[in-house]
Specification:
The complex is a heterodimer of chains A (138) and B (541).
Chain A: H1 3-8, E1 14-18, H2 27-38, E2 42-45, H3 52-61, E3 66-71, H4 76-89, E4 96-101, H5 108-114, E5 118-120, H6 126-137
Parallel strand pairs in A: 1-2, 1-3, 3-4, 4-5
Chain B: H1 3-9, H2 38-41, E1 64-65, H3 74-86, E2 91-94, H4 98-102, H5 125-131, E3 141-144, H6 150-164, E4 172-175, H7 180-186, H8 193-210, E5 214-215, E6 217-220, H9 222-227, H10 231-251, H11 256-259, E7 263-269, H12 273-294, E8 307-311, H13 323-338, E9 342-345, H14 357-372, H15 387-410, H16 413-418, H17 421-439, H18 468-483, H19 486-500, H20 508-516, H21 521-532
Parallel strand pairs in B: 1-9, 2-3, 3-4, 4-5, 6-7, 7-8, 8-9
Helix pairs in contact in B: 3-5, 6-20, 10-12, 10-15, 12-13, 12-15, 13-14, 19-20, 19-21
């Protein structure tokens, strides 16, 4: 993918970056938020320690088409399921969910089965992450 | 496929002998005598302490070898501590779980998935009594990685000492108690910035009086560095935060000659050897000058910059993990050459799992090999007087001062944090660092360059906690609620609330009384939140 594409890979996307749970390590969430914005997306960040219900509510109120969850505490399965359920309760199953953080390979299947459209870890190059996200969100 | 072909495919830059810290400082090449003036550098143990705070370096006293542990329930951690003490460790380092760090009781829905996960759950005095059972607090020093609830955990430690019959003045140890960097990088803030500053000043001033050998703050740059700050920014933000605490301590009536002796610092050491050495030498000189010239501290002990370090952190990577042993050794050497007072070495597998006994032992042995086999501890600042190191130290000092001036120009660290300015800068640095690694400009051997063909990088394993830990913590918590005197708890919390509303009161005696009454961390935090509110995190990007 060349540089011109990177600037528009996520054009037209409105994305919420959420940080559920108590873990305060938010640099990964912020880096990905900046990278998505550089790729043309409109990005909203929830800030730390948001409940799954709150994240789903903000996603609906802000009219986003995707939610990215950053989870490093190891509680990704519970927290992703909770966000998915909260979105369903708000009749917002069309909002796509992707996940980043410390996610072991053995859990990828379970998250995909919940409906997650992408799983990203910090060792992936940003360009690859953005390109993969662009495919997943269209 | 050759490495060269692989790199071409990945569009990687040619490996450069670059700087991981991104210090961006011109590297000295010519000998410049003006940087070598004896009055400019000074002697070891003398102002401005460029060459260290002790005249005999490590000969009088080796750095403290302090490894971090604590997990699950108080009972399990207590067993572990007794084991470590029986095997010659003299200091404990207590890791606390996120609910304790953020001020939630185990019963809170926010707490439940995190109980006992990254450290021990310490929701009330009865847990602290179990944690320190049969451990003589007069003889060991205890370091707590705690910030948002640091004053409460310190109060709990005093209450345990009272229960054990140990005089408070005999207590030694450290609480991190540095809230400013929590707002910027680590995230366990609770209250707004200004009341948090008061709570910290109260705990330091109280500690100076009742437990004068205890370090009530460790001002930390480690976390901003790990999030992406350069070596220069790490030191600049940390010194700026230190000055903000000094200002608050003075505002609350503290005497600089007294409290400044007990301020200590904490940093990450990364791979760029000379940047790290120069960072510590420059920071130590700058702090001494600021304390003497800006705050009028006359006692040399009140000018001294004492610091501990972590070797490892984000410089450790998952691919080819044994390489991390070498990285930690290089970083430990830099810490020793920089004059650190205490060193924590990460285990080589820490980038992808909770360390095993095998990897934790290598981390400890790394320090012992450097201390007892290499012989560098016999010298006193052996790099002092090197044209390269002295000029690099001067340039680092200038660059650190320049970043501190930028913060001053913004109006100081407190508004810069309240308005999210420092957080925004840090996120940008994190992005830049990631881009440099992606492009191959920053070399990480085995990860972006010089890879082992066919190796899969990634997370192999994460720590999965025994689910019974949370249930046991909840049972014990419920038992305390059922057996304590409710009127005593309510009375103690009521007095705490009144004191919190009055800026002239020191809150520490009220927190100690709450602990003695078995009030919980969550109850004390809720009481203070009712007076002060919560920090409203700026979420601008």
């Amino acid at each position: 993918m060349n540089t011109v594409d990177m600037k528009h890979a996520l054009a037209g996307q409105r994305i919420l970056v959420g940080k559920p749970g108590l873990d305060g390590h938010d640099i990964g969430a912020k880096i990905i938020a900046l990278a998505m914005r550089d790729a043309g997306a409109e990005v909203i960040y929830t800030g730390l320690r948001r409940s799954p219900e709150k994240i789903a509510q903000v996603a609906v109120d802000e009219g986003v088409n995707a939610v990215g969850l950053s989870i490093l505490s190891g509680s990704h399965k519970e927290l992703v399921q909770d966000v998915m359920s909260a979105l369903a309760r708000l009749d917002a199953r069309d909002i796509k969910v992707f996940v980043g953080g410390t996610i072991p390979a053995e859990d990828h299947g379970a998250l995909t089965a919940m409906g997650v459209v992408g799983i990203f870890t910090s060792d992936m190059p940003l360009e690859a992450t953005i390109a993969s996200l662009a495919r997943a969100l269209t | 496929m050759t490495q060269e072909q692989a790199n071409t495919e990945l569009k990687l830059a040619k490996p450069a002998l670059g700087t991981v810290s991104g210090a961006g400082i011109e590297i000295p090449t010519e000998v410049d005598d003006s940087a070598l003036r004896p009055d400019h550098i000074g002697k070891p143990g003398e102002f401005p302490f460029t060459r260290g705070i002790f005249p005999d370096g490590y000969q009088g006293r080796l750095w403290t070898i302090r490894q971090y542990s604590g997990f699950g329930t108080a009972e399990e951690s207590n067993e572990r501590y007794k084991f470590l003490l029986a095997h010659g460790q003299t200091g404990l380092s207590v890791a606390l779980d996120l609910p304790t760090q953020c001020g939630y009781d185990p019963i809170d829905p926010m707490a439940r998935p995190e109980i006992g996960k990254v450290g021990v759950s310490l929701s009330n005095l009865s847990e602290a009594e179990i944690l320190f059972q049969d451990i003589d607090l007069a003889r060991i020093s205890t370091s707590f990685t705690i910030n948002g609830t640091a004053a409460i955990i310190y109060a709990m430690y005093l209450a345990v000492a009272d229960k054990q019959g140990v005089p408070r003045e005999k207590l030694t140890g450290t609480i991190q108690n540095d809230i400013l960097k929590e707002y910027v990088a680590r995230g366990t803030w609770i209250f707004p910035v200004r009341p948090s500053m008061r709570l910290i000043a109260d705990s330091i001033l109280y500690s100076n009086d009742v437990s004068p050998r205890f370090n009530a703050i460790s001002i930390a740059g480690a976390h901003v560095r790990d999030a992406g700050a350069t070596a220069v920014e790490e030191m600049a933000y940390t010194l700026a935060n230190g000055l903000a605490y000094v200002d608050e301590l003075k505002r609350r009536g503290g005497d600089v000659e007294k409290f400044a002796k007990r301020l200590s610092f904490f940093f990450y050491v990364h791979m760029d050897f000379f940047d790290e050495v120069a960072k510590f030498r420059a920071g130590r000189r700058l702090w001494a000058k600021l304390m003497k010239e800006r705050y009028g501290a006359q006692d040399p002990k009140a000018q001294m910059f004492r610091f501990g370090v972590v070797c490892g952190g984000s410089s450790l990577v998952a691919p080819q993990p044994y390489n991390n042993i070498v990285r930690v050794a290089v970083e430990t050497m830099a810490a020793v050459m920089g004059g650190a007072q205490s060193i924590f070495t990460c285990a080589f597998d820490e980038a992808f799992q909770i360390p095993t006994e095998f990897s934790a032992e290598i981390a400890l042995r790394t320090q012992q090999i450097i201390a007892y086999e290499s012989g560098i501890g016999r010298s006193v600042d052996p790099l002092g007087g090197s044209y390269f190191v002295e000029q690099h130290t001067d340039r680092m000092e200038e660059a650190i001062s320049a970043v501190m001036d930028e913060i001053d120009a913004y109006g100081g660290v407190i508004p810069a944090i309240e308005e999210g300015w420092i957080q925004m800068r840090l996120a940008q640095r994190g992005l830049e660092r990631k881009q440099r690694i992606d492009s191959g400009e920053t070399v990480i051997v085995g990860q972006n360059h010089f890879r082992h063909e066919g190796e899969q990088a990634g997370v192999d394993e994460i720590f999965r906690l025994d689910p019974s830990v949370a249930n046991r913590a909840l049972e014990k918590y419920q038992k305390v609620l059922d057996t304590r005197s409710q009127p005593a708890v309510q009375a103690a919390l009521h007095k705490l609330a009144r004191a919190a509303a009055d800026d002239k009161e020191n809150l520490m005696p009220y927190l100690v009384d709450c602990c003695h009454a078995y009030a919980t961390v969550g109850e004390m935090v809720s009481t203070l939140k009712a007076q002060w509110g919560e920090f409203q995190e700026p979420v601008n990007l």
